[in-house]
Write a structure and sequence with these properties.
The protein is α/β, with parallel strands linked by helices. About 40% of the residues lie in helices and about 20% in strands.
């Protein structure tokens, strides 16, 4: 439920002070990277604050295993709020000062964090399974692109094929974590995922203008899975022995 708070209460006073201190200490968003964490969550509620000191939103996020987290999103004309109850991938940074006060919720509530980045996820996977995937990949933004690619497929049979395939953690985990090669292209951890998504997205950009819709989607899936066998050949046991 989205609410507008007009009274200056202790909670928002604490938020304003915390954000002010954080802005003075961490002017560069790239600094203090060790303080950042990524989470998969569902948007539960938004409290909007308008004041002379600070405008913004406190968002309550439902995490896997019934935990909750509150994040602060400064108001901006360029940033719209995500839809209520939407599943999100978020990157947050701990504020200097934790949120004071109690919550009526029985679920534990973590310290207030600054929301640095968020992206909606359209997927049939549970929050806990999505979190497992993001925990295993060194390329979270490539994983977001993979999930978005699957969601864009209009052929529900192909969409179900990919969703079922990647619901197997023994397939998904190596696919999203292994390199695409030992010494050539995309040889970094997560390179197999990044290379596969790049190939599929490139074909997506041209296939629909030259092929039928059905053929284009088949081609896209083929491009995405063309290196699937590397989850076996790129395993650590198959790595070349260095001299």
């Amino acid at each position: 439920m989205r609410q507008t708070m007009t009274q200056h209460d202790a909670v928002f006073s604490t938020v304003t002070q915390a954000v002010t201190e954080h802005s003075m200490t961490h002017a560069d968003p790239g600094q203090n990277a060790t303080n950042r964490v990524s989470q998969v969550c569902q948007l539960e509620s938004v409290l909007t604050k308008h004041s002379a000191q600070q405008n913004g939103h406190i968002m309550t996020l439902q995490l896997p295993h019934q935990h909750r987290m509150r994040v602060w999103l400064p108001a901006s004309d360029k940033v719209s709020l995500p839809a209520m109850e939407s599943v999100l991938y978020v990157e947050t940074e701990l504020l200097q000062r934790p949120l004071k006060g109690n919550t009526k919720s029985s679920a534990p509530l973590h310290s207030l964090r600054l929301l640095r980045y968020w992206q909606p996820i359209e997927s049939d996977y549970s929050l806990s399974y999505l979190q497992t995937l993001f925990d295993k990949t060194p390329k979270p933004h490539a994983l977001l692109r993979l999930l978005a690619l699957i969601a864009r497929l209009q052929d529900k049979r192909l969409q179900k094929l990919l969703t079922t395939l990647f619901s197997r953690i023994d397939i998904a985990a190596p696919f999203i974590s292994l390199p695409a090669s030992f010494n050539h292209h995309h040889s970094m951890p997560g390179g197999l995922l990044l290379h596969s998504v790049e190939c599929a997205e490139w074909l997506e950009s041209i296939a629909f203008s030259t092929l039928s819709k059905r053929e284009a989607q088949l081609t896209l899936v083929a491009a995405l899975l063309h290196d699937l066998g590397k989850i076996e050949t790129m395993s650590q046991s198959d790595a070349p022995v260095s001299d």
